[in-house]
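Entry for the shared binder. Reason: the reviewer on the internal report wants the predicted structure included alongside the sequence.
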Amino acid sequence: MTNIISVKNLQKTFNDGVQVLKDISFNVEKGEVLGIIGPSGSGKSTILRCISQLESVSGGTIEICGKTLVKDGLYSPKKELQQITLKTGLVFQNFNLFPHYSVLQNVVEPQIRVLKKSKEEAVNDALPLLKRMGLEHKANNYPCELSGGQQQRVSIARSLALKPEVLLFDEPTSALDPELTGEILSVIKELADEKMTMVVVTHEMAFARDISTHIIFMDQGVIVEQGKPCDVINNPVEERTKSFLSRFNK
């Protein structure tokens, strides 16, 4: 199997001296889904932000698709970083759509700017993705006219349009009403069934168990426990994991 993501001894300390990641290591192979669970503030989202270059690391190594993003805290040259960035797509919890763009424009413009596609080519690639997300009839609407679930589906379509090797989901349902959560989880499950490589940070324990090939439980910046989903979530070994999952496993 091929490692799409390799993280070794990752560390992150913010300017205030707070260390949010302490010696984190894991691999994600092609076609796998890594689920990351844990309490708020444990460092889950920071891992995704380091992989997608929204945060700089304080130490450690990250490789994506065999290319070195950062090694022992030292980043590769800017041109290489730009190419590596194209390998990942990040779906934010708060959608991050352009409010002044229509749904179609939100999916088209990144292709033009990032992949240098013509507008015609970008539109031709965007429309099937919107149809897949059940949003073809909303192509000319603006984000403010959509439900939260619809906005998140546009965000997923936008990421897929850039054809990343791996999709990163940062608590994709946390900003949604409970009744809208299911539609997003079903979209992500479809992608998993198609063997899309993904890293999913989530508070949805049943979803994490059902969709993931591997689970990491984090607390206070460290990996407390990891393994197969049924083992970590249904039969945790560590006391901290048991405590965190006690409500779910009742």
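Summary line for the report: The chain is about 35% helix and 25% strand.
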